[in-house]
Amino acid sequence: MSWSRKVNWTGGLSLMQDDELKPRGDDAHFIYAKKPTIGLADGGGGWTWRGVDAAEYARQLMTDSLIALHNQPKGAVNPKMVLFEAYSNTRAQGSSTACIMTLDGHILRAINIGDSGFMLIRHGKVIYHSPVQQRSFNCPYQLGNTKDHPSLAMVHELIYIYIYIYLN
Predict the structure, then answer these.
(1) According to the lineage, what is the superkingdom (predicted)?
(2) 138-157, pLDDT tens digit by residue?
(3) Residue 155 belongs to some domain of the structure
(4) Total of domains in the chain
(5) Is residue 85 part of a domain?
């Protein structure tokens, strides 16, 4: 007797920070299980020196990404269109890196800018790692009140088995 079972798990976790003034840190994410899509953003901490909450831009970008996702026509999600629309609607001060990924069957479509990214893992081995985009050490490309634009983001389309997503 043979049988197979497919199990889908969706979840998110934000680890509490040691900073009492900012226990949620500078990161933001969304998970939309209906159209298997996730997004994450890492707010640029350098804005705190200017009196700007580094997390505010990241949170608004991910909220605007979720709204843009709802505006997508029926069918496969286009992460590039989602990021472009979210970027054009986000008005908060600050900046962040970003990664938006969606699954369509066994195809992973993604867009990322900066040092937020993902890995494609098969049989326990990393077979693809999205490249880091940065000008120099600890100076990644970022969307927001910077010179960077979503057109600098890298677009990916891959056949997947297992995926690990990370924030730097």
Answers:
(1) Eukaryota
(2) 899 999 999 999 999 999 99
(3) yes
(4) 1
(5) yes
Distances (CA, A) of 152 to 14, 67, 83, 118, 159: 27, 22, 12, 17, 23
**pLDDT tens for each residue of 51-83:** 899 899 999 999 999 999 999 988 889 999 999
Q: Which residue has the tokens 């079972």?
A: 5
Boundaries of domain holding 45: 27-166
CA distances in angstroms from 41 to 1, 23, 73, 125, 142, listed in the order given: 46, 16, 24, 25, 10
**Cα 109 to Cα 123: distance, rounded to the nearest angstrom:** 20
- State the average pLDDT for the chain: 85
Alpha helices for 39-166 (secondary structure H)? 54-70, 79-89
Task: Please check whether residue 70 lies inside any domain of the structure.
Answer: yes
| CATH number (domain holding residue 75) | 3.60.40.10
